[in-house]
Amino acid sequence: MSHVHVIGAGLAGLSAALALTGSGRRVTLYEAGPAAGGRCRSYLDRELGLRIDNGNHLLLSGNHATFAYIDEIGSRSRFGGPGEPLFPFVDVHTGERWVVRPNLGRLPWWILSSRRRVPGSRLVDYLGMAGIARIQGDVVVADAMRRGHLYWRLVEPLAVAALNTRPQVAHAPLLGAVIRETLMQGGKACIPSFPRDGLSEALVDPAVHLLRERGAEVQFGRRVVALTIEGTRVTAIRTTDDSAILEPEDHLVLAVPPWVAVELVPGLTAPDSFESILNIHFRMAALPEETDDEAGFIGMVGGTAEWVFIKPGHVSVTVSAANRLVDEPARTIAALVWPNIRVALALPPTAEMPAFRVVKERRATFAATSVQERRRPGTRTGLPNLVLAGDWTQTGLPATIEGAIRSGRTAAAAILAA
Q1: Which one of 97, 102, 179, 301 has the minimum C-beta count within 10 Å?
Q2: pTM of the full predicted structure?
C-alpha cells in the first residue's frame, strides 16, 4: 500500500491525514514545531497563569467541513455557544447595544422585526447585502453595497473578521462566499460555537490522538528543508536530521504556509502579501453581573478591536487586519483596546487595565485582495505525487478554519483518486 507523507500539522495537514488514514492509507505526519495546530492552538502563559489560545475563532453551524472534522475526532462536547443564531454588538462610542437574531428558516422574516435586525437598517439594505453573494469580478467590499447602518453595524464587522483585510481593498466575492454559506442559508447555518477550554483541546489534540490510534506516525520537531524532485516526481524529503525516500507509489501532501511552500516547490505561485491579527488576553477573574454574556462574545463597532470573547479567568479581544498596529509595543496595543473592553463589558470608566498578553500573528492570513486571490494555487501541482493543502489554496473561501479543513480533505481526495 502506498505511503503518504503529510508535511505540516496545522488544521489542513491534520484534516488530510485523517481523511487518508480513514481510508486505510499509511501516513507519516511531519511538523516543524513542538506541537500540532499551527495558527490554531493553545498554550500555558506562565506570566498570566492561564492557558490561552494564540487566536480567537468563532465557528458557525454552516461550516459543514469543520463540524464533520469535529465529529470525526469526537470533540463536539468541547464546544459551547448560545445554541441559537445570536450576535450581540455594542457601539463603543455611544454605548448603544443590539442583538442580531436571524430566524432558523431560510425565509428571512427576522429582517421585519426591529428587535432582531440591525438598528437603523432598512429592508432594502438587506437586498443589498444579499446581492454581495452574487458579486463577481474585482469589486471591493466597501463598494459592494450602500454604506448605511447595516453595512457599518454588520457587514463590515463580518467582512473584517472573515477576510482579515480592510474593506477598502478586500475582495468582495470572498465575502459573498461566506454570506452564501451562512446568512443565505438561514439562521440554522448561523449558530455560533467556540471551544469551551481551548483550541488545542477542541480541534488539535483529539485529532493527533485519533491519527496515532489509526497507526499514523506523527513526528514533532522535524522540519522539512528540501524536496528532491527528479523528472516529474518528488523522490525524497530532506529534513534537518535525515531524509525519507519516496517509493514510486508514494504521495506527498504539502500543508505548510505559502512562504514555506514556494521555497520547497520551484516555480510555485502562491500569495505573497499577508495581514496580521492581534489577540490581546486580559486576566479578569470575574465580570460584572450586568454584562450580557449570553452568547459568550460581543462584537464591537467603532473601536480598535472587533470582538471580545468571555473566557474562564480572562477575556480576549481580536484586532483583525492589524498591519497598522502590529509593530507597536504590546502595552500601547493593550491600552488602545482596553477602553473598548470597558464599554463592551459595562465596566466602570475607572476600571484599571489588568495583566495582559498580546499575541501577534504577523502573517496570520494572506491579504484577501483580488490580486492575491489570483495567486492562490489549486490542489494539484505539476508533480503527480505532490498535492497542496492550506487555507491559502483555491478553496473558494477566505483564509478560515473551514477553508483549511476543506483543503485537507480535497488534497486527500486527489490522492485517493490517483
Answers
A1: 97
A2: 0.95
